[in-house]
Amino acid sequence: MAPATFQPSSFHMAVTVFGLISMFLLFPEFIVPANAGITRHYNFDIVKKNVTRLCHTKSIVAINGQFPGPAIVAREGDQLLIRVVNHVQNNITIHWHGIRQLQTGWADGPAYVTQCPIQTGQSYVYNFTITGQRGTLWYHAHSSWLRSTVYGAIIILPKRFAPYPFVKPEKEVSITFGEWFNVDTEAIVNQALATGGGPNVSDAYTFNGLPGPLYNCSAKDTFKLKVKPEKTYLLRLINAALNDELFFSIAKHTFTVVEVDAVYVKPFETDTIVIAPGQTTNVLLKTKSEFPNATFFMLARPYVTGLGTFDNSTTAGILEYELPSKSSSFLTNSMKKLQLFKPKLPILNDTSFVTNFTNNLRSIATRQFPCNVPQKVDKQFFFTIGLGTNPCPKNQTCQGPSNSTMFAASINNISFTMPTTALLQAHFFSQSNGVYTTDLPTKPLIPFNYTGTPPNNTNVSHGTKMVVLPFNTSVELIMQDTSILGAESHPLHLHGFNFFVVGQGFGNYNPNKDPANFNLVDPIERNTVGVPSGGWTAIRFLADNPGVWFMHCHLEIHTTWGLKMAWAVQDGKQSNQKLPPPPSDLPKC
């Protein structure tokens, strides 16, 4: 007789199918091949929320009632569908800072650049795929100054089974630096624009929205990082401050820098980090070998180069070691009396430290993580960046550099005027007339001693001017700080691309001598770079992403004053080199 065979009943089949469906819903990553991405859905409700800091309560704009906003966690190769619904009176957009947005320029987010704002009661689904990126990025509102409270981390894990190029950490912790204002930031920027003066500064800096014990009425609002001895932690650092570069240090501990702007770097050790608004930095923190009988301050305070007022305060968090599991009651009680160590941060204007830190940043430049810096250049640009003035309106006294002028900012003396129609739509449908022009000067029209004695006329010109680039153009851009109203560091952010920082220096850029010192082997690759105070930065990038891409200073007041421009990258010949039509739910102006 033939052996009996198992015939699955309909019940067994139903259980099996139900199990597979449940497994897919709970653990979708395990159903797809290792290198394939999955689709992740997020819902962002933009709402008002009452928040109290420094004993001041105010209503803020927040995502899902959270401050800071919820973290987005994904893997390289994943598709993200993020539905943003606006329940507040402010118009809003969300920018996914550092995401390349390859062929998804409609999802980049800057208001009136790639989209019209999401108006009250309206929604928009940001649809993009994370291609060739892994590490820490972030998102924030990109409409007026709403990003003071609307921001959060984007954590991009490597593809499944792909290891980090450094020791696997015990735990990963995101720390986002921010600024807290006791009053509404929209009122602050509106007052600055009306008077022509500088804006009121923040009242505190924050770790993950918490000011910490060095501020009045804030001991209960302190970020605490609890660690175990002899472990390695990965700290994902994000600077979401509006107008300040920051130093960061933990007392009696050192960091190993392993990544900036979601790009791995050659590891190096430091006891202090400098991080500009818009930048991210991943560091490894190796804890002490045994319980240290102490706690340690984590401090952040500004790096200052400009002549304007600033928030001269320090935010503090606390690093605490967990007690051994079999601690005596005596040791447990003594925890309340542990010595608290405080780190020594660089002085406020320590440009020497910043320069040394920046010079340590190098791409890994291996076969697995290549450094594809363009070796040839198709188009060269020389942009002066800095402050200037506008004349004060008649019969009005202003609070700019003089009572007859208002602060302004510019690129090649053109202060960018925001349009009322989204630039990308006008570009895509060839309707530029009355929206923008393509005559932004490629170099200063009137050369001068950029870091020396400023010219007598400091007034800027105005316009909505872009630069058009053919697809796959290799670009070299020199960004030169000016001393027109005082030299100052400027963190410049380029949307839609990473770029390579091939050179930096102080004084005026010398085209005859400085290129000989460019690093074309392992320059750092990133999306936001600090142009040094009284100096210059040279970057290169390949214009391989069709669309309209914003470039601006990430000091929010400088962007407000006009230190911004846009690149229009034309379609290529292949289908994967063209920008698709806009989605049907793209907001209208």
TrEMBL record:
It comes from the Eukaryota. This is Laccase. It catalyses: 4 hydroquinone + O2 = 4 benzosemiquinone + 2 H2O. It comes from Aquilegia coerulea (Rocky mountain columbine). It is found in: Secreted, Extracellular space, Apoplast. Keywords: Apoplast, Copper, Glycoprotein, Lignin degradation, Metal-binding, Oxidoreductase, Repeat, Secreted, Signal. PANTHER family: LACCASE-17, MULTI-COPPER OXIDASE. Binds 4 Cu cations per monomer. Residues 47-159, 172-322, 442-572 form the Plastocyanin-like domain. Its cofactor is Cu cation. Belongs to the multicopper oxidase family. GO terms for molecular function: copper ion binding; hydroquinone:oxygen oxidoreductase activity. One of its GO terms (biological process) is lignin catabolic process. The keyword Secreted applies.
